[in-house]
Amino acid sequence: MAVWDPFRELEALRQEIDRAFEQVGLAPLPRWRLAFLPGRAARQYPLVNLHDDGTNLYVEALAPGVEPDKFEVTAVGSTLTIAGEKSGLPDVAPERLHRSERAAGRFMRTVELPVEVDPNKISAQYKHGLLLLTLPRAESARPRRIAVQAG
């Protein structure tokens, strides 16, 4: 099921406008990722890479600064949810805070997987700011070789 994403449409429009400016010889404005727009970052955190080898799916979720025991990983059918909490700055008086660019607080990211996985066999590791998940395909999602007999 496709999910309507207005930010994707805004990004496509921005790219078309950039191309129009380039055609008349004007340089486009510097590009910023939409993930840094207010309200958008919380829905797109953590950023993930997803690949498979035919037997397992592998998810690499970029989540620096999150304590491993703060993650909640759940899988149902072909849906993976990564939730947790990223701690922020210790108590700092507002007048002493000069810049705050790193987000903190609760997050939840749901990713649609290309196949169903076996939630009982998922393994997770956290190292160097990456949450590494190995998700074995469910038996029903594995390809089966069927012998054909001559008739």
Helix content: 10-25%
CATH architecture tag of the largest domain: Sandwich
Pattern of helices and strands? HHEEEEEEE
Intertermini distance: 42 Å
- The largest beta-sheet arranges its strands as 1-2-7-6
Provide a short characterization of the protein structure.
By secondary structure, the chain is α+β, with helices and mostly antiparallel strands.
Describe this structure in words.
- The chain has helices spanning 6-23, 40-43; strands spanning 47-52, 56-62, 72-76, 79-86, 105-112, 123-127, 130-136.
- By secondary structure, the protein is an alpha+beta fold.
- The chain folds into two domains: 1-31, no CATH class; 37-141, Immunoglobulin-like, CATH 2.60.40.790.
- The strands form two sheets. Strands 1-2-7-6 form a four-stranded antiparallel sheet, with no helix packed on it. A three-stranded antiparallel sheet has the order 3-4-5, with no helix packed on it.
